[in-house]
Every structure is written in C-alpha cells, then in structure tokens.
C-alpha cells in the first residue's frame, strides 16, 4: 500500500492513497442462505472444507469411543492397594470420553455428516489404542500414552481448522483442555 504524508496544523499525519477496505456483508450469500434448507446449519460462508472436517471429527469420534472402552476395562479390572481411588478416576475419565464422543457426533450431524459408530472399523480409525493390561501401573501408562496421542491429534486438528470453522474449533479446544487434565493426572500416578 502506498502511503503519503500530509502536513496538518503543524503535525504529520499519514493517509492511504488507496480506497480503504470496507467491512460489508455479502448480500448475495445472505440471499443464498435462504435457499438450500436441506443443508441445515451449513451456509454459503462455510467454505469447501466440510467433508474434510467431518472426516477429522469421525476419526476423533472413533478415538473417544476406544478411549471410553479402555477406561471402562481398566475401571472394572483394576486391583491393588492404590487401585480404588485410581479406578474411580478411570470411570470419571471414561464418562468424560463418552461426553467428548457425544459432542463430536452432534457437531458431525450439524455439519450434515454421518457420525460413524461402526464397531467393525473403530480400532482402525482410532488414533489411540485399546489396552487389556492387568497391572495398575501398565494401565496408567497405556492411558497416558493414549491421552498424549489424543492431545497431539486435537492440537493438529485445531491448527488445521484455524478460522475455517470457529464452532468446531471451540469444541475441539474444550475437549483438548480436558485431555490435558487427564494426562496431567495420569502422569502424577506413574511411579516409575
Ligand atoms: Fe476425550
Ligand atoms: Fe482423555
């Protein structure tokens, strides 16, 4: 942009020679929003990333379901002196992972997608792994690995989505902060 300097009451002021960009709505897109009602919450300004974002959300949904199953397995089978308190936390985590899955499924539907709950492909689509450990410390370690994978995946998704879909980004940010709390708790319980 070219900028010129003007003399004005003894002080220097700068002004642009080019027209200033105006903040105005796209009226054509507002009109278009009145049509295509089958698209529900998805309007013309959404951009071309809908299918990619739905695919990312479906992989995250699979991850949350696998994490729920892993924590449930650990909750019901944890043994040992320190296990009751930790097992209770495994259950708290299981329920929070289920809540994350519900948020993701709800958002997928809002975007006009199909949430994929198919058990046949869950472990292949999940970023984190199921775990059948019987030792409490091995359970804690497996959960910490899974949480760290989830944290990395959500961090990458948030960067990819950026300002392309602020609602999805806010949902992912809220889930990410809870995964970070999970990882922090688990790392406190690791004894080696
Ligand atoms: Fe989660
Ligand atoms: Fe978690």
Output the keywords:
192 residues; mainly alpha; two-stranded antiparallel sheet; 2 strands; elongated; binds fe (ii) ion
Write up this protein.
The protein is mainly alpha-helical. Helix content is 61%, strand content 6%. It contains 6 helices and 2 strands, in the order ββαααααα. The protein has a two-stranded antiparallel sheet. Helix 2 packs antiparallel against helix 3, helix 2 runs antiparallel to helix 5 and helix 3 runs antiparallel to helix 6. It starts with a strand and ends with a helix. The N terminus is likely disordered. The site of one fe (ii) ion has 7 residues, from helix 2, helix 3 and helix 6.
Spatial sequence of strands, sheet with the most strands:
1-2
Bound molecules: fe (ii) ion
What are the low-pLDDT stretches, counting only 5+ consecutive residues below 50? 1-12
Whole-Å distance between the termini? 59 Å
Order of helices and strands: EEHHHHHH
Share of helical residues: 55-70%
Let me know the average pLDDT. Answer: 91
Shape: elongated
Our count of helices gives: 6
Q: What's a concise summary of this model?
A:
The chain is mainly α. The chain has helices at 27-33, 50-77, 83-110, 122-125, 136-161, 166-189, and strands at residues 3-8, 11-16.
Topology, please?
Blueprint: E1 3-8, E2 11-16, H1 27-33, H2 50-77, H3 83-110, H4 122-125, H5 136-161, H6 166-189
Antiparallel strand pairs: 1-2
Helix pairs in contact: 2-3, 2-5, 3-6, 5-6
Bound molecules: fe (ii) ion (FE2) (2 copies).
